[in-house]
Amino acid sequence: MKRVEAILLKLVVIQFIFLIIAQSLILYTPLSPYLGKIDEYEGISKQEKTKTIETIIDR
């Protein structure tokens, strides 16, 4: 069981390191304008108001 826990801990540490690297690439490099297009594909950057429909719930 300790071996599995050690492997999982190593995987978590590696994931954290890759997260920090990816975040620094997006925020602090000249590549950020090209990587920022991902937000457009996902629809995050658009600040459009959506129409909402109010409904009445029967009590």
TrEMBL record:
Keywords: Membrane, Transmembrane, Transmembrane helix. InterPro entries: DUF5359. The chain crosses the membrane at residues 7-28. It comes from the Bacteria. The keyword Transmembrane helix applies. This is YpfB family protein. It comes from Parageobacillus thermantarcticus.
